[in-house]
Design a protein that fits this description.
The complex is a heterodimer of chains A (456) and B (524). Chain A has 456 residues and is mainly α. In chain A, 67% of the residues lie in helices and 0% in strands. In chain A, α1 runs antiparallel to α4. Chain B contains 21 helices and no strands. In chain B, α1 runs antiparallel to α4 and α1 runs parallel beside α5. Classes of the chains: A mainly alpha (456), B mainly alpha (524). Chain A: It is a multi-pass membrane protein.
Chain lengths: 456, 524
């Protein structure tokens, strides 16, 4: 069967599972007064449509920042504005200032889900296809299998189409950035990544590898001459993109400061809820949240993040090639997730460890189905296409058992949070293991197997 | 520790598991009144004694399937009581708690295991199963065409029915005939008839085939009948199997003297010529022609507009309809047409049987003929032709071509069943999925010998895209949506009727002109 048909089947399967998951509940459904992320996105449409730009990030009578105030960079706000225009065409009640708070209806849900699907098709899915086509090793069947696995990845599907968010936009743009860099189109890659950064500040997790890769590449081309020009062009692209995105906010110096204040809420503390990172796990043994002052916490997290990210970045700087770049991305995001300040569990987008959140949203069924399907599919394809005897097979029943335990057993009354905490700690240990492993791989560069280049 | 899956058959389980996952995701999708129908049957078989099953009429959805299916529902109802006892109360009309939905949906998904087994057996019946790689193997293609059949997923797991389970029994019966295990095949078919009597449509194919190829144990060298080889033993055994199945199923009701009541429930002829949504058959074309003539007649002052009956058929209700210009059609007329349409095929396999494959072809023609000419046909019935045809499609070029035309138009004609906005992306995505797969895999399988579809056929199929855009997206925004709300349905059914008719004709041609097999009919 030809490649294009296989790829289109993957896309169709991916889209079908996405839309089928969207039938289920969303975050905060039917839970006044605050509701959830779904209501937050709707509220941002309301705010951006009805209020002038300089009021979006400020606490005014019309804009109560305590009720889901904007805390993403301007591109999210512009996206919400565009959605709001469409919403206004379909049903003005959806974005009525103040009156539309907590608005919930079947048609509105369809509209919101449709916006996610639209941006997914526009940005994320083409990026995945191109990535698999150009940058996957192996013969074409392996590329298709990779595409299928990525497109069926439950974490993204459940968060975007279940819980409700627009991660596919920022991840998609970042992926376009990686594509650009991989194809040698540095300017395009920088542009795409800058846009990703201006959509969700979480992309800062990936920024250091981008920076080090591009810088390293320019240095290699010689700092006097071509390399310098390249660096200048890249910097100009980045600065211009930032300027364009932040243009409405540059008229008054208070504006960008307020936006930054909303984006990086250092006032909120080291962590919230149960997150599978170092601080939350450490907190079980030593109550660092209360022991240390906020300044010390900030310093500690900054220092540790830097410590874990430095080796990988320096290595990339010295050897700017694609393989190093990919590994650096993994290491950088893991480091930030594990050690930085005010991390939310969604930042990891790893399904197995978001179970508590999804159960709260009423998404248990799609979670179970998509995770099982993904695990089974990836293990099956992995075993068939790489002909290795991965010890990952023990992982499958282990995860199933842990999920079952969480769902069916009642925690003892003395420790009502026992299971979420256990899940968090377990996950944290996994991630710690991953970051050590991947750092070792990147730094030591063990012999890579020659990939089989079979013809179709 | 689980062993790595290097088993050659593991792809089958992967496909089965994959489609089951998809079905699970669709648990929350729209379900039609058929959901309430089955809940009602769960309730009445559970709460009432068997003597009252066919008299119970609290709900409008009375029991209209044969007794074995009622017993099936009875069995299910015991499991249902663990999920939500309230669904088993007959008075709880339209009861649809989350537990009820979960149970009913899961029951369909689990019952599909029968279908999985049948598909596996069918794959064993393929003549040759060689392919350069997995995706090109006929058994792989057949498995996907059956397990991931668009019509089955849409009708069973969204609209809500138990067709997977029933078609599993049918396909298993066919497989048994291919494997020369005719007694089992006959038994399975008798059971099937007692589960859902719509399969009476294909009973003639079974009857003629078994009589000709099984009861007459041998044929002459040229393939004609050898009268002396008639085996009374076989005939009597077959008869016993069929009769005993029917007596197990209907016996209790005959003993209670309820047979007329049961039959009146099973065959309600009061309904109209066409179902609420017209099936894309001959009568759709007939109705349209009648409408066209009446409009032309009024325009050219040949007819008096006051004498014409009101346009009650374009309303979505199931009513008796009087045609204006062309003669009206009665149930008897449709029966005669149906019988006439399948007679040539039956004669053919009597005269020159082509073994199990000839039987299968005749079966598909019977199914399609009854679809084309039957009374009050539901468009879901097209699946009865499409699914068995899949078996032939992976073995012969001409069948593959007919299959493509029939399946794509037939599946598209199912679209009106899912009319909700939420399900719109799902039905389009799944149809595209199935269509792209069937087109490319069959094209690759039969790449020797030129293109599979000729330009006219390809254009016709591509015409479905603008049709969908107009009916689903453009038309609702126009003024005519209020005055002629059923125009899109009419358009869909007429357009698809063309494709189905074309497939029917081609199938007949292929049966009547197929090169005779010179191989002898195997004797047991």
């Amino acid at each position: 069967m030809e490649n294009w048909s296989l790829f289109s089947l993957c896309v169709l399967l991916g889209l079908t599972s996405r839309w089928a998951v969207s039938f289920h509940s969303y975050s905060g459904a039917g839970k006044p007064p605050m509701f959830g992320d779904y209501e937050a996105q709707r509220h941002w449409q309301e705010v951006t449509y009805n209020l002038p730009v300089h009021e979006w990030y400020f606490n005014t009578t019309n804009n109560d920042l305590n009720y889901w105030g904007l805390d993403y960079p301007p591109l999210t706000a512009y996206h919400s504005l565009v959605c709001a225009y469409v919403a206004k065409l379909l049903n003005p009640e959806w974005v009525e200032l103040h009156a539309s708070r907590g608005y919930e209806s079947h048609s509105h849900k369809l509209f919101m889900r449709a916006t996610v699907l639209f941006t997914d098709i526009l940005i994320y899915i083409p990026a995945v296809l191109l990535y698999c086509f150009y940058f996957c090793d192996g013969f074409s069947k392996q590329k298709v299998a990779t595409a299928l696995c990525i497109l069926l990845y439950p974490g993204l599907i459940l968060i975007d189409y279940g819980h409700f968010q627009y991660n596919s936009v920022s991840l998609g743009l970042a992926l376009w950035g990686i594509l650009g860099l991989g194809l040698g189109w540095d300017l395009f890659g920088s542009l795409a990544f800058t846009l990703a950064l201006n959509y969700k500040q979480m992309e800062l997790y990936h920024s250091l590898p981008f920076f080090c890769y591009l810088l390293g590449k320019c240095i290699k081309q010689g700092l006097i001459g071509r390399g310098f020009f390249q660096l200048a062009k890249i910097s100009l692209t980045v600065l211009v993109t930032f300027a364009l995105c932040w243009m409405p906010f540059l008229s008054d110096p208070k504006q960008p400061l307020q936006v930054l204040h909303r984006l990086f809420p250092f006032g909120r503390g080291l962590f919230e809820d149960k997150v599978a990172n170092t601080w939350c796990s450490l907190n079980v043994l030593i109550k660092i949240k209360t022991l240390l002052s906020r300044e010390t916490q900030l310093f500690l997290s900054f220092a540790l993040t830097l410590l874990f990210i430095l080796p990988s970045s320096l290595k990339l700087l010295s050897k700017p090639n694609l393989w190093q770049f990919k590994l650096a991305l993994v290491n950088s995001s893991l480091a930030f997730f594990l050690f930085s300040f005010q991390v939310h569990e969604k930042s990891i987008l790893l399904a197995a460890f978001m179970l508590p959140l999804l159960v709260k949203d009423g998404l248990l069924l799609p979670y179970v189905v998509t995770s099982l399907a993904f695990l089974f599919l990836s293990l099956y394809l992995l075993s068939h296409l790489t002909r290795t005897n991965e010890p990952l097979f023990w992982y499958f029943p282990f995860l199933v058992i842990s999920v079952a335990t969480f769902v069916w057993l009642e925690p003892p009354a003395k420790f009502p949070d026992l299971f979420p905490v256990l899940v968090s700690i377990l996950s944290f240990l996994h991630f710690l293991g991953f970051i050590i492993y991947f750092n070792l791989v990147q730094l030591m560069e063990p012999q890579r197997k020659k990939s089989q280049k079979k013809t179709n | 520790m689980a062993a790595p899956m290097t088993n050659d058959q593991s792809w089958f389980y992967a496909l089965a598991l994959g489609v089951s996952f998809l079905k699970c995701l669709l648990i929350n999708a729209y379900h039609s009144t058929d959901f309430e129908v089955h809940r009602n049957w769960l309730a009445l078989t559970h709460s009432l004694p068997a003597a009252q099953w066919y008299y119970e009429a609290t709900s409008e959805w009375t029991l209209d399937y044969p007794p074995l299916f009622a017993w099936f529902e009875y069995g299910l109802s015991h499991i249902a009581s663990f999920f939500d006892k309230e669904m088993l109360v007959v008075q709880n009309l339209n009861y649809a708690s989350p537990a009820t939905i979960l149970f009913q949906r899961l029951s369909v998904i689990v019952a599909d295991v029968v279908f999985f087994y049948a598909v596996k057996e069918c794959c064993k019946c393929l003549r040759e199963d060689k392919g350069k790689y997995l995706l090109g193997k006929p058994s792989f293609i057949l498995t996907v065409l059956l397990l991931w059949n668009f019509g089955l997923i849409i009708v069973d797991h969204i609209h809500f029915q138990y067709n997977g389970f029933l078609f599993g029994v049918l396909l298993l019966s066919i497989a048994r005939h291919f494997q020369n295990r005719h007694f089992e095949g006959a038994l399975l078919f008798s059971i099937l008839l007692n589960l859902k009597h719509i399969y009476l449509y294909i009973a003639p194919a079974y009857g003629i085939y078994l009589l000709r190829c099984f009861c007459f144990t041998q044929s002459n060298a040229d393939g004609s009948l050898q009268w002396r080889s008639f085996s009374v033993v076989r005939l009597v055994t077959l008869g016993t199997i069929v009769l005993s199945t029917f007596s197990v199923s209907f016996g209790p009701f005959i003993a209670l003297g309820q047979l007329p009541q049961v039959l009146s429930r099973l065959f309600p002829f009061k309904r109209g010529l066409c179902h609420a949504y017209w099936a894309p058959n001959i009568w759709a074309l007939y109705n349209i022609a009648d409408k066209a003539f009446s409009i032309l007649g009024v325009k050219f002052k040949l007819l008096d507009i006051n004498k014409l009956p009101k346009a009650s058929m374009t309303g979505g209700l199931v009513q008796e309809f009087q045609h204006s210009v062309l003669p009206s059609v009665s149930p008897l007329a449709t029966l005669v047409c149906t019988v006439l349409s399948i007679l040539p095929a039956l004669f053919r396999i009597w005269h020159r049987p082509n073994g199990a494959r000839g039987f299968l072809r005749c079966l598909v023609i019977c199914a399609l003929g009854s679809f084309m000419f039957g009374w009050h046909v539901h468009e879901k019935a097209i699946l009865m032709a499409i699914l068995p045809l899949s078996l032939l499609a992976v073995e012969s070029r001409e069948d593959a071509r007919i299959f493509l035309i029939l399946s794509i138009t037939g599946h598209y004609s199912l679209f009106p069943l899912l009319f909700t906005t939420q399900e719109l992306p799902i039905k389009i995505l799944l149809l595209l999925l199935f269509t792209i797969f069937s087109l490319t895999s069959l094209k690759t399988l039969f790449r020797k010998g030129g293109a599979l579809l000729n330009p006219l056929e390809a254009t016709y199929l591509l015409g479905l895209i603008p049709l969908e855009l107009i009916c689903e997206f453009v038309y609702p925004l126009t003024v005519w949506q209020k005055t002629f709300p059923f125009l899109p349905l009419m358009l869909t059914s007429v357009y698809c009727a063309l494709g189905v008719t074309y497939a029917f004709i081609r199938l007949y041609i292929s049966l009547l002109t197929c090169s005779d097999s010179t191989k002898k009919i195997k004797t047991q």
